[in-house]
Amino acid sequence: MGSSLQSYKNKYVRFHDGDLTDIILLSKSLISNRVSEFSDVIEVVNNWNSALERSGPGTLDLKLDKDLSDPNVKSRIVGFLEALKNEIGHYGVTIPSVFMNGLNPPNGTVYLGDPDVRHIQDTISSLQDLLESKDSLPDVYWVLP
To answer: Which end of the chain is more exposed for a tag (fewer CB within 10 A), N or C?
Structure first.
């Protein structure tokens, strides 16, 4: 897998595609379990999933500026991502690869190892920082494993 540049309001962060895949799959899972609570972010997460399905290494574009142009939607996504961080914390140290493979990853993706919860939570925090356009975030930023 490669790494893809995500942009929002003239800030750019490069994420590993595998980390974004984890976030998208886990987002879909959380929404499916709590539809009424997160009904207002379903469209955005579905768009992320569509982008994941049609992307190749280094070409995953979440189209954050387009999908999150409404400040209310952006705020709900930031809150949703916080709920996702809390939800995956219940797994402990790692998320079982059997569970991740059951979330229907894109073609060619097979989880052989268990993803690290803390790393996924840190990546989600970096995505939140991008969306909140933190002043401390440089114009271009890399999220490293």
So the answer is: C
Dist CA 1 CA 57 (whole Å): 5
Query: How would you write the chain as a 3-class SS string?
Result: CCEEEEEECCEEEEEEHHHHHHHHHHHHHHHHHCCCCCHHHHHHHHHHHHHHHHCCCCCCCCCHHHHCCCHHHHHHHHHHHHHHHHHHHHHCCECCHHHHHCCCCCCCCCCCCCCEHHHHHHHHHHHHHHHCCCCCCCCEEECCC
- Looking at residue 138, its pLDDT comes to 55
> Where along the chain do its domains lie?
3-142
pLDDT tens readout for residues 105-141: 988 889 999 999 999 999 999 999 999 976 555 555 5
